Write the C-alpha cells for this entry.
Amino acid sequence: LKALAFGLPTSQGTFGVNVNYFGYSLYNETKIGLAYARKFSDYFSIGIQLDYLNYFIANYYGNRGTAVAEIGILSKPIDKLTFGVHIYNPTLSQVADYNNERIPTIVKFGLNYQFNEKFLMAVETEKDIDFKPRYKVGLEYYIIDDIALRTGIITNPFENSFGVGYIKKRISANIAFSTNKILGLTPYVSFQYKFN
C-alpha cells in the first residue's frame, strides 16, 4: 500500500487531495480522492469526499473504474468526548454490471475519550451492509511528551496492532504493525508535516 495526502486549511474550510495505491503488476487498485471539510462550531464539523476508484486485473478484467462518495460528521458535545460517523459509498456505486459487482457500502460509528493529557481510548463499530459488524478498540498513551505508544484490536476477523508515534510541533512520524491469520505481520509507516 502506498498513499499520499495533502490538506489546505483556509478560512472557508479545509480542502484535501489523496492518492492510494495497492497491489502489483497483475492486480492493483488506485483511489484518488478530493475532499472538503468545514467546522461549523466548536461542537460540529462535516466533511465530504469524492473518489475515483480504478481496478486492474491482467488478462481477464482489464481496467474498471467508478466514482464513489464519502461523508463524515464529527461532534464534540463535551471537552474530552468526541463522536464521529462515516459513510462510504452511500449511493451503492458499482464497479461493473456483471454479477452485480458493487463497491462495498460501509457505515462507521465511533467515539474517543481523552482521560487526561497522556491517555486516550477510542472505540468504533464498522458495518459493511453485506457482512457482520466489526468492533474496534484502541488505546494511546504518551510515555513522554513527544512519544506515544498505541495498541488496538478488531473483531470479525480478529486482528491486533501496536505501534509508536513521534509528534513534535509540525512533524508527526508513526510506525505500527498489525497481525491477522491471512497476512501475518504487516508493517505501516507514516510521516506528516503541517505547513501552518
